[in-house]
């Protein structure tokens, strides 16, 4: 299966993608995680992306399209993939359509997780991430078993630099102006699966699987 998962910042894309990719045995690709890894490694692309990410702005389309094209051409994507955080603009969606067509790959569905804006700020400011494996936790809604340690790998938890109130508000504004139009874009292609993300994590997962006929 080849899937996209979309939704506003804090909707639970990363949280769901991790389990969903395991469940469906497909490759989980997050453009945000790829950029954070490039920043950690201090690459040229990382340096470029960092400026945008710290302000909550989108990284330019040409950069994102380039790294996604390269990632999708790797052999582990042949078993199917779940793209988290791409596309985020109509230009990116059109580029994706072109690249999949060239590769002879068909998109099976677009999962759209909806959560009211007023809930997202608290989700993001309370989020903690594993420095080692990238798993997401929340100080209230998804606590690690041991404080400050990842359940999956024991790694140290940290707070993302773009998870402060000012930057989160900018990310939400940009989502509404640049990314929300993709809901109509995919609805018109009969690919959209609308999911209520304002429920327990387990219930959201169950709804996603049901929408995929699993
Ligand atoms: P990215 O890393 O993709 O960030 P985002 O889209 O802002 O989304 P988040 O990762 O913040 O939220 P999420 O939906 O994954 O939520 P999560 O599961 O963690 O992108 C970061 C930046 O990179 C962008 O701003 C941009 O600069 C750049 N970038 C990336 N892709 C790009 C592209 N294509 N084009 C241009 N630029 C790009 O959950 C959030 C919190 O809520 C967690 O604490 C979690 O535990 C909790 N939670 C999850 N589900 C629930 C639930 N059901 N109930 C209660 N709490 C929950
Ligand atoms: Mg995420
Ligand atoms: Zn971890």
How would you describe what is shown here?
The protein has 9 helices and 8 strands. By secondary structure, the protein is an alpha/beta fold. The protein has a single domain, classed as P-loop containing nucleotide triphosphate hydrolases (Rossmann fold, 3-Layer(aba) Sandwich), CATH 3.40.50.300. The strands form 2 sheets. It has a 5-stranded parallel sheet. A 3-stranded antiparallel sheet has the order 6-5-7. Helix 2 crosses helix 3 (44-55), helix 4 packs parallel to helix 5 and helix 6 (117-125) packs across helix 7.
**In which order are the strands of the major sheet placed?**
2-3-1-4-8
* Distinct small-molecule ligands in the complex: BIS(adenosine)-5'-pentaphosphate, magnesium ion, zinc ion
* Number of beta strands: 8
Q: Please tell me what the overall shape is.
A: globular
Number of domains: 1
Taken as a percent bin, the fraction of beta residues is 15-25%
**Which spans of ≥5 residues are poorly predicted at pLDDT below 50?**
none
Could you tell me the mean pLDDT?
97
CATH topology: Rossmann fold
- In CATH, what is the class? Alpha Beta
Major sheet: size, sense and barrel closure? 5 strands, parallel
* Radius of gyration of CA atoms, rounded to a whole number: 16 Å
Structural class: alpha/beta
CATH superfamily (homologous) name? P-loop containing nucleotide triphosphate hydrolases
